[in-house]
Structure formats: structure tokens, C-alpha cells
Design a protein that fits this description.
- The chain is of the alpha/beta class.
- It has helices at residues 18-36, 42-63, 69-80, 86-102, 111-118, 135-144, 157-160, 167-177, 191-200, 229-237; strands at residues 2-5, 12-13, 106-107, 123-128, 151-156, 184-188, 204-208, 224-226.
- Strand 6 (184-188), helix 9 (191-200) and strand 7 form a beta-alpha-beta unit.
- Helix 2 (42-63) packs across helix 3.
- The strands form 2 sheets. Strands 5-4-1-6-7-8 form a 6-stranded parallel β-sheet, with helices on both faces.
């Protein structure tokens, strides 16, 4: 069987490390902005960032794809009416992408043990909608925790060009493994993306609620609900 995991709020607790990530991005942005236009304020920057994030949410929800740091920053420059050099843009993209390593989020309790045990019985993969942190950086983080090698396949939205619940996010995994939909299970926290996407692709959907419980109105009911990784393992045994 193929078992895939969501990353944010499934494998890691998104809010942990967030202050350090935001500080790294903000300090770099402020220094860059003030080199060009020192009259711009924190409020100006905050307004522009909110607009960029709103655009991300619109594209993510309506088009089922995620904007990366490159897209977001180009939109930010437009909002600020700021012209930056190519080198400045590239370096800012790097700071945004690698902020995950500066403020690394905590792994969810029990994840490491679950992953190493599950890898003995199943082929493991990750299906993740990325934002600032692309697949290459998420791989680095997982390698730090000695769990990257347990995964065989990956469908990061910055690499596939599509985000959950788009069926292509799931078919990518099947194409790489040769598995049939009835042989695949996805574990994730969001009903709108993880559960809906898996069910639409005719996979089994397990909703992980160890970080937070998504509102039932946000999407269809999963095949199973798991508050921790022991419950995920039990649900997989029941398949």
C-alpha cells in the first residue's frame, strides 16, 4: 500500500518557529526596502504583504496551485512600487524559502516512530501544498530529522504545479509507484484539500487532528479520524 502524508499541521506544527521565520523575512525586507525608499514604513510593508498573501489564498483556493516566494515577492514589489535588482530579488527569494530552516517547526509527537515503522510495511510519500518553503527546503528539514530516507515519492506543489484537492496532486504519486487508487491512503489535516482531494481521487482519507480539528463544514467527512500517530497506524491496519 502507498501511504502519503501532508506536511503542514500533519508532519509538523505550523505555528512553532513561526516568529523566527517571520523575523528573518521581515528584517531582510526592511533592509532592502529602505535601501531604495527610506520613507516606506512598517505599515506600508504590512499592507503590501497582506495583499500578496491574499493573492496567494485566491490562487490556492480557486486555481488549485500555490504561488512560490518568487511570485509573491514580485507582487510585493508591485504593491510597494519598488524596483529591485535581479540579485536583490534572487537573494530575497532565498531568504523566504530558507526561513523554514531558521525557524524550524516542531515535528508532531510520535511522527518519527510512525514513519520508520510504516516504511517497513508501506511505500511512503508526501503530498504538500507549499508556499514560502519549496520541496527542496522541506527535504532538507526532514533530512535533519533523519526521516527523509523513509519516503519514496513526493508531490510538492511547487514541483508539480498543482495543489490539493486537484486530482493531479494524487495521480502523480500513483504514476510514480504504479499503485491503484484502492491501494493508496492519504493522511492530512484539512478537509477542503487533504480529505476532499483523496476522496475525489478514490483514495482512502485519514484526517489527522493532532494539531487542530478542521471545521466539518470545510469539506467531506474522511474515512477515519486520527488524533495521533498511533491512531493513524491503527486505521491503516484496519484497511
Amino acid at each position: 500500500m502507498v501511504v502519503t502524508l501532508d506536511f503542514w499541521n500533519t508532519m509538523v506544527v505550523a505555528q512553532t518557529g513561526g516568529d523566527a521565520r517571520r523575523q528573518a523575512r521581515t528584517e531582510h525586507l526592511l533592509a532592502l526596502v529602505r535601501r531604495h525608499r527610506d520613507e516606506l514604513t512598517h505599515d506600508d510593508l504590512a499592507r503590501a504583504r497582506r495583499a500578496a498573501h491574499a493573492r496567494f489564498d485566491t490562487v490556492w483556493k480557486a486555481e488549485h496551485r500555490t504561488l512560490g516566494a518568487d511570485d509573491l515577492l514580485r507582487y510585493l514589489w508591485d504593491e510597494l512600487a519598488l524596483t529591485v535588482t535581479d540579485d536583490e530579488h534572487v537573494e530575497t527569494v532565498r531568504v523566504y524559502e530558507e526561513s523554514l530552516l531558521v525557524g524550524a517547526p516542531d515535528l508532531t509527537p510520535g511522527l518519527v516512530a510512525f514513519v520508520h515503522d510504516a516504511a517497513r510495511h508501506h511505500r511512503l510519500g508526501i503530498i504538500s501544498d507549499t508556499m514560502f518553503s519549496p520541496g527542496r527546503v522541506i527535504r532538507q528539514l526532514l533530512d535533519r530529522h533523519d526521516v527523509l530516507g523513509a519516503f519514496d515519492v513526493f508531490a510538492f506543489s511547487d514541483e508539480t504545479g498543482c495543489a490539493k484537492p486537484d486530482p493531479r496532486a494524487f495521480s502523480t504519486i500513483l504514476d510514480e509507484t504504479g499503485a491503484a487508487p484502492c491501494e493508496a491512503t492519504h493522511v492530512g489535516d484539512l478537509r477542503r484539500t487533504d480529505v476532499a482531494g483523496a476522496l475525489t481521487a478514490n483514495w482512502t482519507a485519514i484526517q489527522y487532528t493532532g494539531v487542530h480539528e478542521d471545521d466539518p463544514s470545510h469539506g467531506p467527512a474522511p474515512d477515519a479520524v486520527a488524533p495521533d500517530w498511533d491512531a493513524v497506524a491503527a486505521a491503516l491496519e484496519d484497511r
